[in-house]
Amino acid sequence: MDRRRLTAIGVVVAAVGAAAAVALPSFAGDGGAPVGVPTSGAEAGADPDVVEAMRRDLRLNDSQVAARLKTERWAAAVVDQLRTDLGATYGGSWLSADGSELNVAVADAAQAQRVRAAGAVPKVVERGVGQLDTLKSRMDRTAARAQQVSGWYVDVASNSVVVLAEPGAEAAGWRFVARAGVPRTAVRMATEEQPRLFADVRGGEPYFIGSGRCSVGFAVVGGFVTAGHCGRVGARTTGADRAPQGVFRASSFPGDDWAFVQVNNNTRVLPEVTDFRGGVARVAGSQEVPVGSSICRSGSTTGVRCGTVQARNATVRYPEGLVGGLVRTNVCAEPGDSGGSWISGNQAQGVTSGGSGDCVRGGTTFYQPVNEILQRNNLTLLTTQNFRALSSRR
User: Cα(328)–Cα(155) distance, rounded to whole angstroms?
Assistant: First the structure.
């Protein structure tokens, strides 16, 4: 599992000793549209260290952080309802750059009023998000012929599928589109440097697989979830203290990038994510946030870093193969952060897969959605609400 050539990211903190799992900021949730702005991060229910990271990376003051988090909680609930109400005409949703406005695309102009009534801004588009997903699936099926293409994803804001060609290889990208049978009018061509996996083999803290190191993602009943490229089924893990910790019971990579590690009786997993400063953020659930939402990542190399969600349903070509269904962000990450936790407010979002760049010049990082991991493996996320009852079942 020598992944030095990939520059991996890794570990979210399998805390030393008893705690094996971790969790990020603790944001208090509330319902209703955003009315009235709290004056500080504490009033918003956010962990102070996460507020500090959001201030640094998103260039916001405390009031702006509180207002953004309040809007995002409201937007997540509105999107859930509109997705159901609009059916096939739902074209996706995204927050404005400053996080103050929720946009909802509709493929039927007659549905615009329904969106306005919910407090969002309607955007009439040509294709519903289901159509875009179908076009992207055609590309997935033709992936073996994607020469000089590093990935592709659905971009709801432009109502298109974005194809990422290697610099200077746009013509090869369009040939791939043609082979997939996708109309050019539904595609936006872009260029980007080659992504690589984030897994660190040099050793460090949190959890180890032989000489490799990766990050704990989120606590589930019986263990924790993390990145699939960190270990195969049967691989054994040790904790930060190098004591035996657990074993990989499920792992998928490439194609997906998720894994489940069952911990032993000497290890306790907690519904928390470390901030690497002695504090924790507590996990209350796993409701997905819209594109444009703020999001924070915890990893053992670079600590807590924040940014925004750029796109969902992204396919990425790693040297080992394609991984689909990832979420693209503008959050930075570095070797040693793989498998780590992604959280928005107090809601778990996913585990670190890979990306490009670093935390000096910035970069793009992808995560595997946590809800897919839970569903595919019939796992139950540990939260502040169910922790005592469910953890006792193990």
Answer: 10
